[in-house]
Specification:
heterodimer, A: mainly beta, seven-stranded mixed beta sheet, four-stranded antiparallel beta sheet, B: mainly beta, six-stranded mixed beta sheet, five-stranded antiparallel beta sheet, 11 strands, 0% helix, globular
Chain lengths: 115, 113
């Protein structure tokens, strides 16, 4: 158990809908990262927050947004969902925001299925 | 677009065999190379974070080496056990990337008893 929690574990929804995925980082970790794992793709970095501020952005679609709250939990909002958004979404956390030396601790993931 | 390649894509070995696989990454602007172990139905778990050319890290029967000049890292498993069966991911962090990790697609290792 990494100490990172994600809810829900599974989510099934329809095209065009909007969903919110939630992540609580390990106690003491200030940085939260979101990743998408689609079929045949490696883990794709979406976005990083550090202590409430957006720190880095990857290939995140405009239909997707995220935020980190004062209690450091983070939410990833996915809207106007398409079939291709079906994937495993991971959240990870690390102690600091800008160090290459710190490993990331991954949550159990949320499996999103868009029908 | 950063290219992080892992080979082989999958590997089957017998219990007790030693094995190794490769991660290739850009040789310029290097910050760090991470290795993660991802068991089925679990989440990726960090094995090593490597930052210096020539780095060698070891954890039990698993070790890794790093060559930043030529852009590769090897992961070695000595005396493989069935519980080593997992996908092994490497992730590259380059300068100017705002500390983003770019992951390879992984090597799926299956150790047969």
């Amino acid at each position: 158990d990494s100490g990172v929690t994600q809810t829900p574990k599974h989510l099934i929804t329809a095209t065009g809908q909007r969903v919110t995925l939630r992540c609580s980082p390990r106690s003491g970790d200030l940085s939260v990262y979101w990743y998408q794992q689609s079929l045949d793709q490696g883990l794709q970095f979406l976005i990083q927050y550090y202590n409430g501020e957006e720190r880095a952005k990857g290939n995140i679609l405009e239909r997707f947004s995220a935020q980190q709250f004062p209690d450091l939990h983070s939410e990833l909002n996915l809207s106007s969902l398409e079939l291709g958004d079906s994937a495993l979404y991971f959240c990870a956390s690390s102690v600091v925001g800008g160090s290459p030396y710190n490993e990331q601790f991954f949550g159990p993931g949320t499996r999103l299925t868009v029908l | 677009i950063l290219n992080v390649e892992q080979s082989p894509q999958s590997l089957h070995v017998q219990e007790g065999d030693s094995t190794n696989f490769t991660c290739s990454f850009p040789s310029s602007n290097f910050y760090a190379l991470h290795w993660y172990r991802w068991e089925t139905a679990k989440s990726p778990e960090a094995l090593f974070v490597m930052t210096l050319n020539g780095d060698e890290k070891k954890k039990g029967r698993i070790s890794a080496t790093l060559n930043t000049k030529e852009g590769y890292s090897y992961l070695y498993i000595k005396g493989s056990q069935p519980e080593d069966s997992a996908t092994y991911l490497c992730a590259f962090m380059g300068g100017g990337s705002n500390y983003k990790l770019t992951f390879g697609k992984g090597t799926l290792l299956t150790v047969n008893p």
